[in-house]
Amino acid sequence: MAKIIKGKPVADKITEELSKEIENIKAKGGQPKLATLRVGERGDDIAYERGATKRAEKIGIEVASVVLPGDITQEDFIEELQKLNKDASVNGILIFRPLPKQIDESMIKNIIAPEKDIDCFSPVNVGKMTEGDPTGFNPCTPSAVMEILDFYGVEIKGAEASVIGSSMVVGKPVAMLLLNRKATVRVAHSKTRDTAAVARQGEILVVGVGVPKMVKEDWVSEGAVVIDVGINVDDEGNMSGDVDFEKVQKKASMITPVPRGVGSVTTTVLAKHVLKAYKQQN
Ligand SMILES: NC(=O)C1=CN([C@@H]2O[C@H](COP(=O)(O)OP(=O)(O)OC[C@H]3O[C@@H](n4cnc5c(N)ncnc54)[C@H](OP(=O)(O)O)[C@@H]3O)[C@@H](O)[C@H]2O)C=CC1
Ligand SMILES: Nc1nc(=O)c2c([nH]1)NC[C@@H]1CN(c3ccc(C(=O)N[C@@H](CCC(=O)O)C(=O)O)cc3)C=[N+]21
Protein backbone atom coordinates (compact mmCIF):
# COMPACT_ATOMS: atom_id res chain seq x y z
CA MET A 1 0.00 0.00 0.00
CA ALA A 2 1.31 3.41 -0.98
CA LYS A 3 2.11 6.11 1.50
CA ILE A 4 -0.45 8.90 1.01
CA ILE A 5 1.52 12.09 0.57
CA LYS A 6 -0.69 15.01 1.52
CA GLY A 7 -0.23 18.64 0.59
CA LYS A 8 -0.78 20.13 4.03
CA PRO A 9 2.63 19.39 5.63
CA VAL A 10 4.31 20.82 2.52
CA ALA A 11 2.09 23.92 2.56
CA ASP A 12 2.60 24.35 6.32
CA LYS A 13 6.39 24.29 5.98
CA ILE A 14 6.38 26.90 3.19
CA THR A 15 3.82 28.99 5.11
CA GLU A 16 6.04 29.04 8.19
CA GLU A 17 9.00 30.34 6.19
CA LEU A 18 6.88 32.98 4.47
CA SER A 19 5.14 34.19 7.64
CA LYS A 20 8.46 35.09 9.30
CA GLU A 21 9.66 37.05 6.27
CA ILE A 22 6.38 38.91 5.91
CA GLU A 23 6.42 39.82 9.61
CA ASN A 24 9.83 41.44 9.08
CA ILE A 25 8.62 43.30 6.00
CA LYS A 26 5.53 44.58 7.84
CA ALA A 27 7.64 45.68 10.81
CA LYS A 28 9.46 47.97 8.38
CA GLY A 29 6.16 49.32 7.03
CA GLY A 30 5.98 47.18 3.90
CA GLN A 31 2.91 45.31 2.57
CA PRO A 32 3.11 42.64 -0.16
CA LYS A 33 -0.02 42.63 -2.34
CA LEU A 34 -1.58 40.22 -4.83
CA ALA A 35 -4.17 41.25 -7.42
CA THR A 36 -6.32 38.52 -8.99
CA LEU A 37 -8.05 39.19 -12.28
CA ARG A 38 -11.05 37.03 -13.14
CA VAL A 39 -13.38 37.29 -16.14
CA GLY A 40 -16.80 35.69 -15.71
CA GLU A 41 -17.94 33.03 -13.24
CA ARG A 42 -16.06 29.80 -14.09
CA GLY A 43 -16.30 27.39 -11.16
CA ASP A 44 -12.66 26.32 -11.05
CA ASP A 45 -11.49 29.94 -11.28
CA ILE A 46 -13.70 30.80 -8.30
CA ALA A 47 -12.39 27.76 -6.38
CA TYR A 48 -8.81 28.84 -7.01
CA GLU A 49 -9.58 32.48 -6.18
CA ARG A 50 -11.16 31.43 -2.88
CA GLY A 51 -8.27 29.13 -1.91
CA ALA A 52 -5.59 31.61 -2.97
CA THR A 53 -7.21 34.53 -1.15
CA LYS A 54 -7.68 32.58 2.07
CA ARG A 55 -4.09 31.36 2.02
CA ALA A 56 -2.52 34.70 1.10
CA GLU A 57 -4.45 36.65 3.74
CA LYS A 58 -3.58 34.08 6.41
CA ILE A 59 0.10 34.63 5.63
CA GLY A 60 -0.27 38.44 5.72
CA ILE A 61 -0.46 39.24 2.01
CA GLU A 62 -3.12 41.74 0.96
CA VAL A 63 -5.42 40.57 -1.85
CA ALA A 64 -7.40 42.70 -4.32
CA SER A 65 -9.86 40.56 -6.31
CA VAL A 66 -10.86 42.16 -9.60
CA VAL A 67 -13.89 40.51 -11.22
CA LEU A 68 -14.96 41.56 -14.71
CA PRO A 69 -18.13 40.64 -16.65
CA GLY A 70 -17.86 37.54 -18.87
CA ASP A 71 -18.69 39.57 -21.99
CA ILE A 72 -16.06 42.29 -21.43
CA THR A 73 -14.31 43.46 -24.61
CA GLN A 74 -10.62 42.82 -25.13
CA GLU A 75 -9.98 46.56 -25.11
CA ASP A 76 -11.62 47.04 -21.70
CA PHE A 77 -9.84 43.98 -20.30
CA ILE A 78 -6.47 45.38 -21.40
CA GLU A 79 -7.29 48.68 -19.73
CA GLU A 80 -7.95 46.89 -16.41
CA LEU A 81 -4.72 44.91 -16.74
CA GLN A 82 -2.72 48.08 -17.50
CA LYS A 83 -4.08 49.65 -14.30
CA LEU A 84 -2.68 46.74 -12.29
CA ASN A 85 0.62 46.84 -14.20
CA LYS A 86 1.00 50.53 -13.27
CA ASP A 87 -0.25 50.30 -9.66
CA ALA A 88 2.94 50.40 -7.56
CA SER A 89 1.13 48.89 -4.54
CA VAL A 90 0.46 45.66 -6.51
CA ASN A 91 3.42 43.24 -6.52
CA GLY A 92 1.86 40.21 -8.22
CA ILE A 93 -0.93 39.69 -10.77
CA LEU A 94 -2.79 36.38 -11.29
CA ILE A 95 -4.98 36.19 -14.40
CA PHE A 96 -7.30 33.18 -14.30
CA ARG A 97 -7.10 31.03 -17.42
CA PRO A 98 -8.50 30.17 -19.84
CA LEU A 99 -9.85 33.63 -20.73
CA PRO A 100 -13.15 33.84 -22.67
CA LYS A 101 -12.98 33.53 -26.46
CA GLN A 102 -13.26 37.24 -27.27
CA ILE A 103 -9.97 37.88 -25.44
CA ASP A 104 -6.82 36.76 -27.27
CA GLU A 105 -4.46 35.14 -24.75
CA SER A 106 -1.55 35.34 -27.16
CA MET A 107 -1.88 39.12 -26.98
CA ILE A 108 -2.50 39.41 -23.21
CA LYS A 109 0.54 37.33 -22.31
CA ASN A 110 2.70 40.08 -23.85
CA ILE A 111 0.94 42.84 -21.88
CA ILE A 112 1.16 41.53 -18.29
CA ALA A 113 4.27 43.06 -16.67
CA PRO A 114 6.81 40.19 -16.45
CA GLU A 115 8.03 41.31 -12.99
CA LYS A 116 4.44 40.97 -11.66
CA ASP A 117 3.61 37.79 -13.60
CA ILE A 118 3.71 35.34 -10.69
CA ASP A 119 2.05 32.41 -12.56
CA CYS A 120 4.25 32.39 -15.69
CA PHE A 121 1.86 33.73 -18.33
CA SER A 122 4.43 36.02 -20.01
CA PRO A 123 6.84 34.51 -22.56
CA VAL A 124 9.61 36.25 -20.59
CA ASN A 125 8.94 33.96 -17.65
CA VAL A 126 8.33 30.90 -19.85
CA GLY A 127 11.80 31.54 -21.32
CA LYS A 128 13.39 31.96 -17.90
CA MET A 129 11.77 28.73 -16.69
CA THR A 130 13.08 26.89 -19.75
CA GLU A 131 16.60 28.18 -19.12
CA GLY A 132 16.34 27.55 -15.38
CA ASP A 133 16.92 31.28 -14.70
CA PRO A 134 15.93 31.79 -11.02
CA THR A 135 14.97 35.48 -11.47
CA GLY A 136 11.73 34.49 -13.23
CA PHE A 137 8.49 32.96 -11.99
CA ASN A 138 7.63 29.33 -12.68
CA PRO A 139 3.93 28.47 -12.85
CA CYS A 140 2.46 27.73 -9.42
CA THR A 141 0.93 24.28 -9.96
CA PRO A 142 4.07 22.72 -11.54
CA SER A 143 6.15 24.33 -8.77
CA ALA A 144 3.82 22.75 -6.22
CA VAL A 145 4.50 19.33 -7.79
CA MET A 146 8.25 19.89 -7.36
CA GLU A 147 7.80 21.09 -3.75
CA ILE A 148 5.88 17.90 -2.93
CA LEU A 149 8.52 15.63 -4.51
CA ASP A 150 11.29 17.43 -2.60
CA PHE A 151 9.43 17.50 0.72
CA TYR A 152 8.85 13.73 0.63
CA GLY A 153 12.46 13.03 -0.39
CA VAL A 154 11.79 11.67 -3.89
CA GLU A 155 15.05 11.51 -5.90
CA ILE A 156 14.51 13.34 -9.21
CA LYS A 157 18.02 13.21 -10.67
CA GLY A 158 18.29 10.25 -13.03
CA ALA A 159 14.68 9.13 -12.42
CA GLU A 160 12.42 7.96 -15.25
CA ALA A 161 9.57 10.48 -15.15
CA SER A 162 6.31 10.31 -17.11
CA VAL A 163 3.97 13.28 -17.46
CA ILE A 164 0.43 12.77 -18.77
CA GLY A 165 -0.99 16.03 -20.20
CA SER A 166 0.99 18.79 -21.92
CA SER A 167 -0.88 22.07 -21.33
CA MET A 168 1.01 25.29 -20.56
CA VAL A 169 -0.61 25.39 -17.08
CA VAL A 170 0.35 21.86 -15.98
CA GLY A 171 2.00 19.20 -18.19
CA LYS A 172 4.54 21.07 -20.30
CA PRO A 173 6.06 23.11 -17.46
CA VAL A 174 6.08 20.06 -15.14
CA ALA A 175 8.07 18.22 -17.82
CA MET A 176 10.48 21.16 -18.13
CA LEU A 177 11.03 21.48 -14.38
CA LEU A 178 11.68 17.73 -14.10
CA LEU A 179 14.08 17.90 -17.06
CA ASN A 180 15.94 20.83 -15.47
CA ARG A 181 16.44 18.64 -12.40
CA LYS A 182 17.91 15.88 -14.59
CA ALA A 183 15.04 13.43 -14.74
CA THR A 184 14.56 11.49 -17.99
CA VAL A 185 11.14 12.72 -19.09
CA ARG A 186 8.39 11.30 -21.32
CA VAL A 187 5.26 13.32 -22.07
CA ALA A 188 1.90 11.98 -23.27
CA HIS A 189 -1.00 14.06 -24.67
CA SER A 190 -4.25 13.50 -26.57
CA LYS A 191 -2.47 12.26 -29.71
CA THR A 192 -0.15 9.84 -27.92
CA ARG A 193 -0.71 6.32 -29.32
CA ASP A 194 -0.21 4.40 -26.10
CA THR A 195 -0.54 6.68 -23.08
CA ALA A 196 -0.71 3.68 -20.71
CA ALA A 197 2.70 2.51 -21.94
CA VAL A 198 4.19 5.96 -21.33
CA ALA A 199 2.66 6.03 -17.85
CA ARG A 200 4.03 2.58 -17.01
CA GLN A 201 7.59 3.72 -17.72
CA GLY A 202 7.43 6.35 -14.99
CA GLU A 203 9.14 5.87 -11.64
CA ILE A 204 7.63 9.30 -11.08
CA LEU A 205 4.20 9.70 -12.72
CA VAL A 206 2.57 13.13 -12.88
CA VAL A 207 -0.99 13.33 -14.26
CA GLY A 208 -2.79 16.54 -15.29
CA VAL A 209 -5.47 15.80 -17.87
CA GLY A 210 -8.93 16.54 -16.46
CA VAL A 211 -10.44 13.05 -16.94
CA PRO A 212 -11.70 11.54 -13.67
CA LYS A 213 -10.02 8.23 -12.72
CA MET A 214 -8.29 7.88 -16.11
CA VAL A 215 -5.16 6.27 -14.67
CA LYS A 216 -5.86 2.65 -13.64
CA GLU A 217 -3.60 0.28 -11.72
CA ASP A 218 -2.28 -1.40 -14.88
CA TRP A 219 -1.00 2.04 -16.02
CA VAL A 220 1.29 2.28 -13.01
CA SER A 221 4.55 0.43 -12.42
CA GLU A 222 5.14 -1.26 -9.08
CA GLY A 223 6.52 1.25 -6.55
CA ALA A 224 5.95 4.38 -8.66
CA VAL A 225 5.48 7.80 -7.08
CA VAL A 226 2.14 9.12 -8.37
CA ILE A 227 1.30 12.85 -8.35
CA ASP A 228 -2.33 13.53 -9.30
CA VAL A 229 -2.83 17.13 -10.41
CA GLY A 230 -6.36 16.65 -11.74
CA ILE A 231 -9.26 18.46 -10.10
CA ASN A 232 -12.63 17.15 -11.29
CA VAL A 233 -15.85 18.17 -9.60
CA ASP A 234 -19.02 16.10 -10.20
CA ASP A 235 -22.65 17.27 -10.13
CA GLU A 236 -22.88 16.67 -6.39
CA GLY A 237 -19.80 18.81 -5.82
CA ASN A 238 -17.48 15.89 -4.98
CA MET A 239 -13.86 16.42 -5.97
CA SER A 240 -11.75 13.67 -7.56
CA GLY A 241 -8.46 13.45 -9.39
CA ASP A 242 -7.34 11.90 -12.69
CA VAL A 243 -6.05 8.76 -10.95
CA ASP A 244 -8.19 5.83 -9.76
CA PHE A 245 -6.89 6.33 -6.24
CA GLU A 246 -8.29 3.21 -4.52
CA LYS A 247 -6.78 0.85 -7.09
CA VAL A 248 -3.52 2.66 -7.82
CA GLN A 249 -2.80 3.02 -4.11
CA LYS A 250 -2.16 -0.74 -3.99
CA LYS A 251 0.63 -0.50 -6.55
CA ALA A 252 2.35 2.85 -6.01
CA SER A 253 4.92 3.58 -3.28
CA MET A 254 3.58 7.12 -2.74
CA ILE A 255 0.45 8.86 -4.01
CA THR A 256 -1.11 12.31 -3.58
CA PRO A 257 -4.83 12.42 -2.69
CA VAL A 258 -7.45 14.69 -4.29
CA PRO A 259 -8.60 16.82 -2.53
CA ARG A 260 -5.87 17.72 -0.01
CA GLY A 261 -3.05 17.11 -2.46
CA VAL A 262 -1.38 19.31 -5.07
CA GLY A 263 -4.15 21.96 -5.01
CA SER A 264 -3.45 22.92 -1.42
CA VAL A 265 0.24 23.50 -2.20
CA THR A 266 -0.50 25.52 -5.37
CA THR A 267 -2.06 28.38 -3.40
CA THR A 268 0.90 28.45 -1.00
CA VAL A 269 3.39 28.61 -3.88
CA LEU A 270 1.36 31.53 -5.25
CA ALA A 271 1.87 33.37 -1.95
CA LYS A 272 5.59 32.53 -2.10
CA HIS A 273 5.80 34.08 -5.55
CA VAL A 274 4.06 37.29 -4.39
CA LEU A 275 6.71 37.65 -1.68
CA LYS A 276 9.49 37.03 -4.23
CA ALA A 277 7.99 39.72 -6.50
CA TYR A 278 7.77 42.14 -3.57
CA LYS A 279 11.43 41.60 -2.71
CA GLN A 280 12.55 42.04 -6.32
CA GLN A 281 10.55 45.27 -6.60
CA ASN A 282 11.81 46.75 -3.34
N1 LIG B 1 -4.12 21.07 -8.56
C1 LIG B 1 -4.09 22.27 -9.09
O1 LIG B 1 -3.67 23.22 -8.45
C2 LIG B 1 -4.53 22.46 -10.50
C3 LIG B 1 -5.24 21.47 -11.13
N2 LIG B 1 -5.62 21.59 -12.42
C4 LIG B 1 -6.32 20.43 -13.02
O2 LIG B 1 -5.43 19.70 -13.83
C5 LIG B 1 -6.12 19.12 -14.92
C6 LIG B 1 -5.50 19.55 -16.23
O3 LIG B 1 -5.64 20.95 -16.36
P1 LIG B 1 -5.13 21.72 -17.66
O4 LIG B 1 -3.76 21.29 -18.00
O5 LIG B 1 -5.42 23.15 -17.43
O6 LIG B 1 -6.16 21.13 -18.76
P2 LIG B 1 -6.16 21.24 -20.34
O7 LIG B 1 -7.49 20.78 -20.77
O8 LIG B 1 -5.64 22.58 -20.75
O9 LIG B 1 -5.04 20.18 -20.80
C7 LIG B 1 -5.25 18.79 -20.70
C8 LIG B 1 -4.05 18.05 -21.28
O10 LIG B 1 -4.32 16.64 -21.23
C9 LIG B 1 -4.17 16.09 -22.52
N3 LIG B 1 -5.14 15.00 -22.72
C10 LIG B 1 -6.47 15.09 -22.87
N4 LIG B 1 -7.03 13.89 -23.00
C11 LIG B 1 -6.01 13.00 -22.93
C12 LIG B 1 -5.93 11.57 -23.00
N5 LIG B 1 -7.03 10.82 -23.17
N6 LIG B 1 -4.72 10.99 -22.91
C13 LIG B 1 -3.61 11.74 -22.73
N7 LIG B 1 -3.62 13.08 -22.64
C14 LIG B 1 -4.81 13.69 -22.75
C15 LIG B 1 -4.38 17.23 -23.50
O11 LIG B 1 -3.74 16.92 -24.72
P3 LIG B 1 -3.70 17.97 -25.96
O12 LIG B 1 -2.67 19.00 -25.56
O13 LIG B 1 -3.23 17.12 -27.08
O14 LIG B 1 -5.07 18.50 -26.10
C16 LIG B 1 -3.76 18.38 -22.74
O15 LIG B 1 -2.36 18.43 -22.95
C17 LIG B 1 -7.58 19.54 -14.73
O16 LIG B 1 -8.25 18.54 -14.02
C18 LIG B 1 -7.46 20.81 -13.90
O17 LIG B 1 -8.63 21.06 -13.15
C19 LIG B 1 -5.28 22.68 -13.18
C20 LIG B 1 -4.57 23.71 -12.62
C21 LIG B 1 -4.20 23.70 -11.21
N1 LIG C 1 -3.60 31.10 -14.44
C1 LIG C 1 -4.20 30.05 -13.86
N2 LIG C 1 -3.46 29.18 -13.13
C2 LIG C 1 -4.06 28.12 -12.49
O1 LIG C 1 -3.36 27.33 -11.81
C3 LIG C 1 -5.48 27.95 -12.61
C4 LIG C 1 -6.19 28.89 -13.39
N3 LIG C 1 -5.53 29.90 -14.01
N4 LIG C 1 -7.54 28.76 -13.54
C5 LIG C 1 -8.29 27.78 -12.78
C6 LIG C 1 -7.47 26.52 -12.52
C7 LIG C 1 -8.05 25.68 -11.41
N5 LIG C 1 -7.13 25.78 -10.32
C8 LIG C 1 -7.41 25.34 -9.03
C9 LIG C 1 -6.46 25.30 -8.01
C10 LIG C 1 -6.80 24.91 -6.72
C11 LIG C 1 -8.10 24.57 -6.42
C12 LIG C 1 -8.51 24.16 -5.04
O2 LIG C 1 -9.60 23.68 -4.84
N6 LIG C 1 -7.66 24.34 -4.04
C13 LIG C 1 -8.01 24.01 -2.68
C14 LIG C 1 -7.40 22.71 -2.25
C15 LIG C 1 -7.77 21.57 -3.11
C16 LIG C 1 -7.17 20.30 -2.60
O3 LIG C 1 -7.26 20.07 -1.39
O4 LIG C 1 -6.58 19.55 -3.41
C17 LIG C 1 -7.50 25.09 -1.73
O5 LIG C 1 -6.59 25.83 -2.12
O6 LIG C 1 -8.00 25.17 -0.62
C18 LIG C 1 -9.06 24.58 -7.41
C19 LIG C 1 -8.72 24.96 -8.69
C20 LIG C 1 -6.05 26.50 -10.71
N7 LIG C 1 -6.16 26.94 -11.95
Automatic annotation (TrEMBL):
Q: Does the keyword GTP-binding apply?
A: no
Annotated Tetrahydrofolate dehydrogenase/cyclohydrolase catalytic domain ranges read 5-119
Tetrahydrofolate dehydrogenase/cyclohydrolase NAD(P)-binding domain boundaries: 139-281
The source's domain of life comes to: Bacteria
Describe its partners and assembly state. Answer: Homodimer.
Membership in a protein family: Belongs to the tetrahydrofolate dehydrogenase/cyclohydrolase family.
Protein name as it appears in the record: Bifunctional protein FolD
Q: Which organism is it from?
A: Isachenkonia alkalipeptolytica
